[in-house]
Amino acid sequence: MFLINLFQATDEDSGSYGVVRYTAVNGPIAGNLRLDPVSGELTLLSGEGLDRERIPEYTLTVEARDDQGKGNRNMAEVHVILADANDNAPLFLQPRYDAVLNPDMRNFYEPLRVQAYDADGPGPNSDITYEIVNGNYQEKFLIDPQTGELSLQAPLVPNPETQDHGLPVITLTVRAHDQGVPVRFATVKVQVHNQEYLNRSISFIIPLSVKKASERRQELERGFSALTGAHVNLHSIAFHNSSTEK
């Protein structure tokens, strides 16, 4: 049991009329609590249903009576503020990140920043730090531990023995962890591509007529962009004849 508060009440009457007993605790979480009738100790019996992210504090009333709990009564109000437990791990805003290198391989074509959030309350339990934990090609990638922005500390050196113009698709694993106890974390993949990635063509087969697909071009582009994780432009919409496939 966890002690929440110790109440003390006095009565100026003499004899049994002056004997105070603590007779009731009322409020939305009264069922989670125990009030000792003699000592006035208010303790937490169970944390079931308590969630600081949902309801951070409660207002309760404690009742005391004289005459050994049978006489006149008075009540005191108590505010219970829940401490934050580190019960949420960080979550990344995207399931995967993609980036394209500049032709000189010194930096990214567009700024690259991974972002995560933590649903715990303000403080160490929701303070996030970022780090690269795997795939740091040639050990040249850096990440700002506070902002999650990725950069290169030196140009990448192509390997002529590999395909894709000497530079493979690089997959970094980035971890976001909080400062709570226990530490909770999440990871995400970051795929780094060369310039050819910008010009890649993909064919999509969808169950729509050419007319309806054309009318919904923007909607389809948004959907395919979300599906692939890259910006998609539909260059042409044409009838697909499955009978010509081998």
UniProtKB/TrEMBL annotation:
The keyword Metal-binding is assigned to this record: no
Domain Cadherin span(s) in chain numbering: 7-92, 112-209
GO terms under cellular component: plasma membrane
Keywords assigned: Calcium, Cell adhesion, Glycoprotein, Membrane, Repeat, Transmembrane, Transmembrane helix
Molecular-function GO terms, alphabetical: calcium ion binding
Any one GO biological process: homophilic cell adhesion via plasma membrane adhesion molecules
Keyword Repeat: yes
Source superkingdom: Eukaryota
InterPro entries reported in the protein's UniProt record: Cadherin-like_dom, Cadherin-like_sf, Cadherin_CS
Subcellular location per the Swiss-Prot or TrEMBL entry: Membrane
Record's protein name: Cadherin-86C
